[in-house]
Amino acid sequence: MKAMQARVRKLLEENKIDGFIGLKMEHGHPAPFMFSRENLGEMETLVVGDVRYPLNKALLKVSGQYPDLTFGVMVRGCDERGITELLKWNQLHRDRVIPVGVACSSELAQLCECYKPYPSDWVVGEKTEGIAKSKRLQKIEGMNQKERLSYWLNQFNKCIKCYGCRDVCPMCFCEVCSLEDRNFILTGKLPPENPTFHLSRAVHMVGRCIDCGLCEEACPSNIPVRTLYKKINEIVKEYFDYRTGESSEGKSPLNLLGEVTLELSDVNK
Amino acid sequence: MTNSIAEIENSKCIFIIGSNTSEAHPLIGSRILKAKEKGAKLIVADPRKIQLSFYADIFVRHQLGTDVALINGILNVILKEGWYDRKFVEERTEGFKEFRKVVEKYTPENVEKITGVRAQDIRKIADLYARSKSSSIIYAMGITQHITGVDNVKSLCNLAMLCGQIGRESTGVNPLRGQNNVQGACDMGGLPNVYPGNQPVSDGQMAEKFEKAWGTKLSTKPGMTLTEMLKAAMAGEVKAMFILGENPMVSDVDIQHVEKSLEALDFLVVQDIFMSETARLADVVLPGVSFAEKDGTFTNTERKVKRVRKAIEPIGSSRQDWDIICDLSTRMGYPMRYDDPSKILEEVAQVTPSYGGIYYDRIETEGLHWPCPNRAHPGTPYLHKDRFSRGLGLFHAIEYLPPEELPDKEYPYFLTTGRIYVHYHTGTMTRRSPSLNKEVEEGFAEINPRQAKELGIIQGERIKVFSRRGEIEIKADLSERMERNTIFIPFHFVESAANRLTNPAFDPIAQIPEFKVCAVKIEKVNH
Amino acid sequence: MEYKTVLTTCGYCGCGCGLYLEVLDGQLVGAQPCKTDSVSQGGLCIKGWNVHEFVQNSERLTKPLIKKDGQFKEATWDEALDTVASRLKKIKEENGPDRIAFLTSAKCTNEENYLLQKLARAVVGTNNVDHCARL
Predict the structure, then answer these.
(1) What pLDDT was estimated at residue A265?
(2) Of the residues B78, B225, B456, C108, which has the fewest C-beta atoms closer than 10 A?
(3) Are C25 and C42 part of one and the same domain?
(4) Could you tell me if C45 lies within 8 Å of chain A, comparing CB atoms?
(5) Does C125 lie in the same domain as C104?
(6) Which residues, other chains included, contact C11 with Cβ-Cβ below 8 Å and sequence gap of 6+?
(7) From CA B355, how far away is CA B449, in angstroms rounded?
(8) C49 and chain A in contact, CB less than 8 A
(9) How many domains does chain C have?
């Protein structure tokens, strides 16, 4: 904690950053907050713990308002993958973000079944080995197709359509969301169309999901959406050899063509 | 609620009646699902096939307004099978004999004829509820908004007492309050017959206590309820009204009557954040602020007093509502001055025993459940542990009475009303929220598809719905949620206001209107 | 430049979910569940996630209004409150306190509800106080 406070203070005092998005202990709860030169006196309230909030999402809001300023942000392994991907999607500017790392506790890493529970460098915590294969996913893969379908339909039926999985997701930055497309998904009823609603979101997680698990934590109905997206990530890895947020090279499989226009003549060849 | 929200999760059996919990109280709905995942049995009784019914061990659709009959049927089985808690009945209750006599008539077979619920299902509900280690009853306006609202609630209390499913953790009789601070508004004496903390105004000693605290003379004559106020306004007996942040023009039964009553007033003041349908009728409109612009406390449905914190400055020249009231009082010759809302709650604690130990510094991190009589008291997550407020719990012998209005030849269908997951109450706030408005933009009438087919109505078609009070035009929404003889209309939408149709018949004690049952007819709109 | 989150209680239904309002430079820019709140436990419904939106709606009332000849005219706080005070006092003096009635609010805070019923009972002198609990 002290190390993180000292690092952030130094970055601010040396004008390396204009603000730092982290967690502040207030009213007995850790809460997202931006530390800045104006509130340096509050640095002692900066905390690091196992309670996680979508800090990258807060960063997008602040940097969107102040595109010329540089911000620091507290990152874990998953958040760092998020930053890498957000840079590729041009949501952030490379020179305007300084991540300050935290390595996750082994409890948290176990809970998340995270394959890399630490960022490239960190000031708080100790490196814990990642978990290669999710047990939760294996359990579902152990079911036959009929059982699996019934399992997921039952899970999706609990949905109260809060959109929390999307609203909390640091990688959901689209201005128009297909979950709200009425030609696609009917509205006004609970549960939402099953399985269209959840599978639409799952498909849009291709090349986006950094496996932070905030979606599942935000789900009031305990739907294991993270396990579903873990499977998506596994498929993306297997078929496209792409691991979302792992490297600054390469493009998301859903963005392979970029701006290249596919001519009709190319198709006919 | 007699018990706290957290306790629901550890309940072994949950009986949900008259509450579409996952839409109207979503985060309590999710607790119910968590309990289910931990092995709790779920009983759902609702005329609509609501989301929670998918997860019910037993789901019954009793005909609208037959709650007393259904519950008496359950009680009948429990008595007959000897599944009740004899010790609890002996030690903690009275009135058992008279109660038993009435219930004996309600055999499952008789009840089946009234409610449409199969006798074997009634037996199964009785078995699950009575014989589980801890059973919770959860209900909402589906129980209370009837002419027999009080009877319905008393019947549920009979059930909990008979089985000793009250006064312990994860049991109880748990009404879900619909509005964020409706519990607090009641606790703070926003009622005609009581001061804060349920202390009767007609009790001379109470009046004396408050006279001392407030330094003035007080009336011991109970005041009028909202329904009586409106009647009195129409008759010229009430000349002025001051309405703080309420919109009876959409939420009340039989809106036409409300409008005429408010227009008959000499002087109407409305303090609100939007130009609501009610505010339009006012002589003076005072702009208050939203929950995001002030400090204070709300008391949620589990009696937990929680902090509200100011996030932004008041919009425009609007002012914090407590500050407006203080200013008005001072101008009327009674100076009211508080440094900040924490000082107001300190005064509440002085005069309200159940809030006696609730101060801002104690609810900084986590709220407190009342009753909390003093600063050292940890609060009370569940009530009636060793005794009921009146001492012994009183069984009520209650006969079933049908709703005031039933379908007939002219108006052949039942109408029932309620909320949907996107909107809140009269829509003043949610319909002005772009994300929510986009989700559901207009009202609809849910109709069973087979019934719609008989009427030649297709999905999305505009229809007219008539009752003896009025008519509305609305979109038809064909849904298997509804049974053939019943339609459902959410009451949020002023342009297709369900409350133009609802029946102004009231529970004689609670004065609650029978929103949940009336008779309507349906016609296609031929443009 | 300021970004903070403010811990508060949702203003919609009776669940009373603890949530954070996100504030950027004095403007609400979002809402999210408080993970360590005993009711919401880190989740919210669709209303809770969007509870900030109505607050800054352009239709918010920002000035007191007094109706003259059937039309609302903007007024100062002094004008509006003096009008209310004098009209209520006059009706009380001429017709008696029970000719005035008050509706408190299930949407306002405990403190405000307490003060309004106190105004009705101690200042006007009537127990004609109710709210929309039944609706």
Answers:
(1) 55
(2) B456
(3) yes
(4) yes
(5) yes
(6) B180, B290, B291, B292, B298, B308, B429, C51, C107
(7) 51
(8) yes
(9) 3
String of DSSP letters for A107-154: HHHHHHT-S--S-SS-SBS------SS-HHHHHHHTS-HHHHHHHHHH
Provide the shortest C-alpha distance from residue C39 to chain B (in Å): 7
Tokens representing B201 are 């105004």
Please, are residues B243 and C29 in contact by the beta-carbon 8 Å criterion?
no
Structure confidence by residue, pLDDT tens digits, B253-274? 777 889 999 999 999 999 999 9
Query: Which of B10, A43, B437, A98 is closest to C47 using CA atoms?
Result: B437
Residue C74 located in a structural domain: yes
Residue in C closest to B309 by C-alpha: C8
Tokens of A177: 């969301």
Nearest CB partner across the interface for C5, out of A32, A65, A160 = A32
Question: What are the chain A neighbours of B30 within 8 Å (beta carbons)?
Answer: 160, 220-222
Domains of chain B: 5-176 (3.40.228.10), 182-369 (3.40.50.740), 413-524 (2.40.40.20)
Cβ contact (<8 Å) for C35 and A217? Answer: yes
For C33, name the nearest residue in chain A, comparing CA atoms only.
A218
pLDDT at A259 over 60: no
> A58-75 in b/e burial notation, b at 16+ Cβ within 10 A?
bbbebbeebeeebbbbbb
As a whole-number percent, the residues of chain B with pLDDT over 90 amount to 93
Residue B5: both structure tokens together:
């929200």
- Are A220 and C45 within 8 A, CB to CB? yes
H or E element, residue C91: helix C77-95
CA distance B256 to B371: 40
Do C4 and A34 make contact, defined as CB atoms within 8 angstroms?
A: yes
Backbone phi, psi, residue A33, to 5°: -160, 150
- Residue C131: give the domain boundaries: 97-135
Q: What is the mean pLDDT of chain A?
A: 93
Place of tokens 């949905």: A159
Residue B476 is inside which H or E element, if any? strand B471-478
- For residues C88 and C111, state if they share a domain: no
Q: Is the pLDDT of residue B315 over 70?
A: yes
Find, among A76, A73, A19, the residue nearest to A50 by Cα.
A76
Let me know if residue C55 belongs to a domain: no
C91 and C101: one domain?
no
* Model confidence pLDDT, tens digit, residues B142-185: 999 999 999 999 999 999 999 999 999 999 999 999 899 999 99
pTM > 0.90: yes
Smallest CA–CA distance, residue C55 to chain A, in Å, is: 19
**ω into residue A195 within 30 of 0, thus cis?**
yes
Q: How confident is the model at residue A269 (pLDDT cuts 50, 70, 90)?
A: very low
Pairing of strands A71-75, A19-26: parallel
Q: Which of C15, C63, C110 sits opposite B297 (nearest CB)?
A: C110
Q: What is the DSSP letter of B47?
A: S
Does the ipTM exceed 0.90? yes
Of C64, C120, C126, Cβ closest to residue B285: C64
Q: Is residue C102 included in any domain, yes or no?
A: yes
- CA distance, residue A243 to nearest chain B CA (Å): 33
Q: Are residues C83 and C102 in the same domain?
A: no
Token look-up 């509800």 returns C113
Closest-CA distance of chain C to residue B268, Å: 9
Task: State whether B366 and A157 contact (CB < 8 Å).
Answer: no
If pLDDT is split at 50, 70 and 90, which confidence band does A28 have? very high
Distance (Å) from the alpha carbon of B92 to chain C's nearest alpha carbon: 30
- The answer to whether B439 faces chain A, any CB pair under 8 Å, is yes
Q: How many CA atoms lie within 13 A of C22 on its CB side?
A: 25
Q: From residue B434, give the alpha-carbon distance in Å to each of A60, A268, B423, C50, C60.
A: 21, 45, 12, 9, 14
Residues C85 and C102 in one domain: no
